[in-house]
Amino acid sequence: QKIDRATAKARHGLFGQIASLFATDEPITDELWDDLEALLIQADVGVETTMYLVNRTKDRCNRYGVKRAREARDMLKAEMVRVLQEQERRQPVNANPSIVLVVGVNGAGKTTLIAKLAYRLKNQFGKRVLLAAGDTFRAAATEQLETWAERVGVPVISRGQGADPGAVVYDAIEAVSGGDFDVLIIDTAGRLHAKTNLMLELQKLRNIIRRKFPDAPHEVLLVIDATTGQNGVLQAKSFLKAVDVTDVAVTKLDGTAKGGIAFAIAQDIERPIRYVGTGEKMTDLALFDAETFVESLFA
Ligand code: GDP
């Protein structure tokens, strides 16, 4: 299981400590809840979500007369799954071509994720995939996407650094209009602090797409780097105002011993987590599943 590898650090780190808190037949004490609270906060779960989880678990234990730590563990796991599942997955839109817009701050792992998605769609589902190099702002972003595209074996529409991203997307939309492709995945810029307004740019791209495909983009993936913690979630939130984010991809989960960020994302971003990045290779992608994820944290 890829997700097990991705959560190894978290499992051996803070979640391992949480698991051992609940591995005894000792009676439940206030100290247990305090320790749980401290560990969840350290694990990047975020204060609000931590309080929510602790209080709900405590209430449940009281309600069901649970007295021993070991039995409380299942209550905690159930609450964790609930937090992650609160965001209902929409039914995937069955459009052809299907148009996917990928957004997120620089360095979050957008380009790598696009390569992983393209690889999966092409090799597992036999889809004809086209990529669009819509990040014309960051130096080498286009080249990086082209390198990945070559490795995966899919074509990419690009105009190079400094070009109008709208023109790139326009070209890509024209290219998929002919029926030669099943999926178009569009990379976008991730600069948050530059003068030119990124959010306006994203809205323009969306409008260009909609001129030809009024119900597109069919999926807007917000990419969040698990290693950037609460700050990463805060930055990611700014994208919610600009585009209709449909799903979240959490990258670099393998790179953090905290891992609790998934809970903070579910509560703060209010979108379902769909994909998890489990490494740097194009095969290092897992579909997110709440129960499997929580199990892997406690395994
Ligand atoms: P972008 O600026 O958002 O396009 O980010 P990139 O795709 O260039 O990724 C930034 C860095 O993160 C690169 O060094 C990637 O190899 C690395 N990276 C991306 N996804 C993952 C992941 O799931 N796990 C790990 N360990 N590294 C990743």
UniProtKB/TrEMBL annotation:
Residue ranges of every copy of the SRP54-type proteins GTP-binding domain listed in the record: 272-285
Localization per record: Cell membrane; Cytoplasm
UniProt cross-references to SUPFAM superfamilies, sorted A to Z: Domain of the SRP/SRP receptor G-proteins, P-loop containing nucleoside triphosphate hydrolases
Binding site for GTP: 104-111, 187-191, 251-254
Keywords attached to this entry: Cell membrane, Cytoplasm, GTP-binding, Hydrolase, Membrane, Nucleotide-binding, Receptor
One Gene Ontology cellular component: cytoplasm
Protein name in UniProt: Signal recognition particle receptor FtsY
Gene for this chain: ftsY
